[in-house]
Specification:
The complex is a heterodimer of chains A (about 300) and B (about 375). Chain A is mainly alpha-helical and about 300 residues long. Chain A is built from 14 helices and no strands. Chain A folds into two domains: about 80 residues, no CATH class; about 210 residues, MetI-like (MetI-like fold, Orthogonal Bundle), CATH 1.10.3720. Classes of the chains: A mainly alpha (about 300), B mainly alpha (about 375). At the A-B interface, helix 1, helix 2, helix 5, helix 6 and helix 7 of A face helix 2, helix 4, helix 5, helix 6 and helix 7 of B.
Chain lengths: ~300, ~375
């Protein structure tokens, strides 16, 4: 029977089989029509809640002034303009520091701090996961404990430490505190435990690789999803962090500060405020697009111990 | 009388029953000690031994030991930068804030002057007014309500997003994007949470704090404004707007739990479902007997993650109360409030882990 089948027929049969298989899988969670409807409804409803603020923000940023002031607020725009974006730079003229400086500060601080955080965290995690350094169990317990502690409790003593270190009003005030966050160490350690076989490291050592070489060109490529995820989360937090009381000079402040300053300037500037918000949303989303495929993978390894 | 009995007992045990046993034990102990001593001496001595314990004469012991010690030293260099950070920015602040909680603190340039007052801070908090208790109960009540809702909604979302349908990637993106963009100031600008839910003082300079508290006019999505335009009665508008705000907050807290659940669901082997299909299990049974037990660990992780996220939000009542004390330069009181709060969180977390692993995880194993 199969021998007599033409090539085209065989291909068609294969396609049909694939389709059937797909349908079966699809059926697993949505068997009945009502169930199907329920799932779709649930997804769309919650999906709407999830994206509505962002959608509204983007729409508002393209509204001309007369549409901005319409009450009730509209969820659509009739004659879109990019005016809000164009007036952004001139809006901050009275602030002595150009918008580009804020943007530069934000990018510089986020990129440098993220890079250092990922490097330092990975190196520490590598030691905790793959060597027999004395006291590593205690250190890891401290890491887990510190995950539970939000920074609120530690704010005041930290402030004093910054003061004594003399890092007030420098870029270090952004960067240094961000480096030793324990989230990175925790994530990387959990991932390295399962994804780097000891044999691999032994092999590298036998082949004459030094400790750094083993870490850099053997261990790190193997846990790429983990440090990509870490990069995403770290970048997200640093990008949106407002300068605390540790920064006084205007030329060292970051984009979130500029954004809130613009938002402060009244109802007529709503468009501009939303425009700057849209601009601020772009970099994290870009980082997400780059790292996207890795996120789920990392979560599955670090979640199940 | 009593004394006599004791003496008698002692005599009994020492003379009749135990003497031989204790002697043996003592002898064994001594032997063990001697062995350990010998081993220690062996380790300390700069000789190498073969399997039979004889000294190998011409071996450079220093070199043999060197590799091991070198290895751990390299490890030390690797972990050092992070360790310094941990001590500087976590351990030292942790210990000093703990001391503040039991002290009377007066700020001096460059350091804090502390005098030990024991539990005085706590006595003050509870005696002066009941705002703290109210805030504490309020935030715990909120979390008891919200936690199950968030966990259940994200589990349902994850189940749907993990099945095969068209546009799955798109919808995954939809639910994950809030996680990516909603941090810090952006979140506030988007949902106008700044300025309306009370002061959010992130120890920022007064200018910045002012800026945040007036972002309310910034043009983000304002639910109340939208609802007012519908011209419903004021009561209903108020109720609806708080309800919708709650839904928003819930959905926006679901991002990471959904990802965690999807990750957990993907580790379940497909054979289990195939087998259950052959056996004729319904979808409900499949969920109850395969899916849920398989993601027990993930479930616990999600519960703890959500718990911590919920209780340490910046609009938490207790945290705001403690921050109000900071502006009054009452650092001791503020630390005491926060430490008590975090101790309670710790106890709740511990209890949940204990109960969950004793009941659910044990049964699902």
């Amino acid at each position: 029977m199969e021998a007599t089948m033409s090539k085209a027929d065989a291909r068609r049969l294969k396609k049909l089989k694939l389709k059937a298989a797909k349908r079966d899988q699809y059926k697993r969670f949505t068997r009945t029509k009502s169930g199907n409807f329920f799932y779709t409804f649930f997804l769309i409803l919650f999906g709407m809640f999830s994206v509505l603020p962002m959608y509204y923000c983007i729409i508002t940023s393209f509204k001309p002034l007369d549409e901005l002031l319409v009450f009730p607020p509209r969820f659509y725009v009739i004659s879109p303009t990019v005016e809000s974006y164009l007036t952004l730079p001139s809006l901050l003229d009275n602030l002595a520091v150009p918008l580009s400086r804020y943007a530069f500060n934000s990018i510089f601080v986020s990129v440098v701090a993220t890079f250092l955080h990922v490097m330092v965290g990975s190196a520490a995690a590598y030691v905790l996961a793959k060597t027999n350094i004395p006291g590593k169990k205690i250190i890891f317990t401290i890491v887990q404990m510190s995950l539970l502690y939000n920074s609120y409790t530690l704010e005041i003593p930290r402030y004093i430490i910054y003061a004594n270190m003399g890092i007030f009003d420098t870029y270090w005030a952004y960067i240094l505190p961000a480096i030793p966050s324990s989230m990175g160490v925790f994530l990387m350690k959990q991932f390295m435990d399962t994804n780097i076989p000891d044999a691999l490291i032994e092999a590298a050592k036998i082949d004459g690789a030094g400790s750094f070489r083993t870490f850099w060109s053997i261990a790190m490529p193997n846990v790429k999803p983990a440090w990509l995820t870490l990069t995403l989360f770290s970048f997200r937090d640093l990008w949106a962090a407002a300068p605390g009381s540790t920064i006084f000079s205007e030329e060292l402040k970051t984009l979130p500060f500029a954004a809130s300053t613009i938002a402060q300037s009244g109802i007529a500037r709503q468009g501009c405020a939303m425009a700057v918000t849209v601009i601020m949303m772009i970099p994290p989303i870009l980082v997400y697009l780059v790292t996207q495929s890795s996120v789920t993978q990392t979560m599955s390894s670090s979640g199940i111990k | 009388m009593k004394k006599d009995k004791n003496v008698e007992l002692e005599a009994n045990t020492t003379e009749e029953r135990k003497p031989t046993l204790s002697e043996i034990l003592k002898a064994e102990e001594a032997e063990l000690k001697a062995q350990k001593k010998a081993e220690k001496a062996k380790r300390k001595a700069k000789y190498a031994y073969d399997i039979n314990g004889n000294i190998i004469p011409d071996l450079d012991v220093k070199h043999v030991k060197g590799i091991e010690s070198k290895k751990s030293w390299y490890g030390f260099y690797f972990i050092l930068p992070w360790l310094i950070g941990l001590v500087l920015f976590f351990l030292i602040p942790l210990i000093s804030s703990l001391t503040y909680a039991f002290s009377d603190v007066t700020p001096e340039p460059g350091y804090m002057d502390t005098t030990w007052v024991g539990l005085e801070n706590y006595r003050y908090i509870f005696d002066s007014s009941d705002t703290y208790q109210k805030a504490l109960l309020g935030s715990i009540g909120d979390f008891v309500l919200q936690l199950p809702i968030i966990v259940i909604i994200s589990l349902i979302l994850a189940l749907i997003l993990n099945s095969n349908f068209k546009g799955r990637t798109f919808f995954r993106g939809v639910f994950f994007v809030p996680v990516i963009v909603a941090a810090g100031v952006i979140m506030g600008l988007l949902t106008q949470s700044y300025g309306e839910n009370g002061p959010i003082i992130q120890l920022s300079s007064t200018v910045a704090a002012d800026a945040y508290s007036t972002v309310g006019t910034g043009g983000g999505l304002d639910v109340t404004e939208l609802l007012t335009s519908l011209e419903l009665p004021a009561d209903i508008t108020e109720q609806l707007s708080s309800l919708i705000t709650d839904i928003f907050n819930t959905i926006w807290s679901c991002g990471i739990p959904v990802v965690l659940f999807i990750a957990g669901l993907q580790t379940i082997p497909a054979q289990l479902y195939e087998a259950s299909k052959v056996e004729g299990a319904t979808t409900w049974e499949e969920f109850w007997y395969i899916t849920l037990p398989s993601i027990g660990q993930t479930l616990l992780l999600v519960i703890i993650f959500t718990l911590i996220e919920l209780l340490t939000k910046s609009d938490n009542e207790v945290i705001n109360l403690a921050y109000a004390q900071i502006t009054n330069v009452e650092y001791g009181l503020s630390s005491a409030m926060l430490w008590l709060f975090f101790a309670i969180i710790g106890v709740i977390t511990g209890l949940i882990i204990l109960i969950f692993s004793k009941t659910c995880l044990k049964r699902w194993e």
